[in-house]
Write a structure and sequence with these properties.
mainly alpha, 2 helices
Length: about 70
């Protein structure tokens, strides 16, 4: 696999992780009506998604890619 294809795949993975994190942060608002346990679960899930997004952002940063999120 050449380097540009690997970068493109990593960027695509980052974009999916970014969208997933945004969606899961939105679930926190939806869980607000369901009580504190639901809010806690949604918060933990959103934090994990943000951690994945940040991990991919770091990998891309190490490769020299500039990201805005």
């Amino acid at each position: 696999m050449n380097r540009s294809v690997a970068h493109a795949e990593l960027i695509a993975t980052f974009k999916r992780a970014e969208a997933d994190a945004a969606r899961k942060f939105g679930l926190i608002k939806a869980a607000a009506n369901k009580g504190p346990e639901a809010i806690q679960a949604a918060t933990e899930t959103a934090a994990k998604a943000a951690k994945r997004r940040d991990s991919f952002a770091k990998k891309l940063g190490d490769l020299g890619a500039e990201l805005e999120y």
